[in-house]
Design a protein that fits this description.
about 50 residues, mainly beta, three-stranded mixed beta sheet, two-stranded antiparallel sheet, 1 helix, 5 strands, about 50% strand
Length: about 50
């Protein structure tokens, strides 16, 4: 099992129609499983890009 390192959580945002009706939806973070120093970790794609 990979260890979760990133503290990112989904955002709750409104999905707007042309009539400006608001419907709640979630924007999930882009989490990736990467191997760092022989250990699998779950980090965001932005964090992985900074490390590499």
């Amino acid at each position: 099992m990979a260890k979760k390192v990133s503290k990112k959580k989904p955002l709750v945002v409104n999905d707007r129609s042309h009539a400006l009706n608001a419907t709640k939806r979630r924007q999930k973070p882009n989490l990736q499983v990467k191997t760092i120093n022989g250990e699998k970790v779950i980090i965001s794609a932005r964090e992985a890009k900074k490390i590499a």
